[in-house]
Amino acid sequence: MHSDQIHALLSEEIASGGSIRGRWHAEYLGHSYRSAVDRAMARVDGRPQSVLKTDLWNECLGGTRDLAGHFQEQHGCRFFGLDLEYQVCARARSRVPAVHVVQADIRALPFRAGSFDAVLDLSTLDHLPDDGVAQAIDGYRRVLRDRGVLLLIFWQRNFLMRQRVFLKRLLGRREKPDQHYFARAAVRAKFGGGLVVVREFVTGSLLIPPQPLTGFVLGRLPARWVTRFLRRLVDLERSAVVHPLLKHFAGLYGFAALRRKDAEYDRPDAA
Ligand SMILES: C[S@@+](CC[C@H](N)C(=O)[O-])C[C@H]1O[C@@H](n2cnc3c(N)ncnc32)[C@H](O)[C@@H]1O
After folding, report:
1. Mutate to test the pocket of ligand 1, among 101, 127, 155 (most ligand atoms within 8 A of CB)
2. If you write DSSP's letter for every residue of 59-82 in order, what string do you get?
3. Which single residue of 50, 58, 107, 158 could bond 65 by disulfide (Cβ 3.0 to 4.6 Å)?
4. Which residues have C-beta within 8 Å of that of residue 71, sequence separation ≥ 6?
5. Is residue 271 part of a domain?
6. Tell me, what CATH number does 22's domain have?
């Protein structure tokens, strides 16, 4: 990605997170990601010592999507952040000095086998072409210790997401560079061989079109109502009851998987 492009995109996201119409979006994803991370961390066997977060975009932005700050407060372990782009790494280094920042590609992780208790990929994988997915997931498996946790969230390829991309193009809205959308089954097929999927969930059900209308409506409501609504929605998205329906509509799909050296089965629980 060109550095001007990165700068423009970062500025755009920071500005939109602070605007009345865009705030709900940052708050929604921020809350959803944090709650997914907290649930995943609760599955780590013992007290987590070191965690890898792939891509530093959210940490760079701060505000409601600042995962690194949250992590430091809630989990207090060694937090490694990795990103492909120098500019994003530099910004993360200056904003969150406690994070160990590494500039690298998720397809070639520069860490020893078994280095991490948890790997958190919150929409980094979906910046790879299809043929990079297996390579990245193999890398995550390698750097996780036995009974470590992988949290993976990615943009889904489904009917509504195709409409979203089409509408964005029609309205001349900028899509993130190299943004890809994956079918759930295709990503799931890359697990196994020591990575056992223990949970599947959806999020991003509000990110379907027409987002400007959603922003307009939520932007007119009192902030505390919006916060309450978004929290309830994230809870609902995690519920096993609505999972079979929402998985066809939601923008993002998530897997939590355990690294099990002795794994012979791959049986996710409910939603
Ligand atoms: C545009 S951001 C969006 C992702 C962000 N997690 C979100 O949910 O909005 C994508 C980030 O992933 C990084 N990235 C893209 N491909 C990567 C790769 N192969 N390895 C590591 N980081 C990558 C980019 O530099 C950028 O910071």
Report:
1. 127
2. HHH-GGG-HHHHHHHHT-SEEEEE
3. 58
4. 37, 51, 53, 79
5. no
6. 3.40.50.150
Phi, psi of 269 (to 5 degrees): -85, 140
Q: Convert the pLDDT of each residue in 208-223 to its tens digit.
A: 767 778 888 888 889 8
Q: Ligand 1 center to residue 56 CA distance, Å?
A: 7
Å from CA of 222 to ligand 1 middle: 32
**Tens-digit pLDDT profile for residues 39-76:** 999 999 888 889 999 999 877 666 666 777 777 667 67
C-alpha span between 210 and 217 (Å, rounded)? 11
In a domain, 94, yes or no: yes
Distance in Å from the first CA to the final CA of the chain: 36
Q: What is the DSSP letter of 107?
A: T
Tokens of 88: 């994003």
Question: What are 238-245's contacts with CB under 8 Å, separation 24+?
Answer: 238/35, 238/39, 238/201, 238/271, 239/271, 240/270, 240/271, 241/271, 242/271, 243/200, 243/201, 243/202, 243/270, 243/271, 244/271
**Ligand 1 atom closest to Cα of 176?**
1
Yes or no: say if 91 and 122 are a contact pair by the CB < 8 Å rule: no
Closest-CA residue, ligand 1 atom 3, reads: 57
66 is in which domain, residue-wise?
3-265
**How far, in Å, from the CA of 264 to the mean position of ligand 1?**
32
Is 204 a member of any domain? yes
Q: How many domains does the chain have?
A: 1
Q: Is residue 178 part of a domain?
A: yes
* Residue 123: Cβ within 10 Å count: 21
- Is the beta carbon of 85 within 6 A of some atom in ligand 1? yes
CB of 180 within 6 A of ligand 1: the answer is no
What is the model's pTM? 0.89
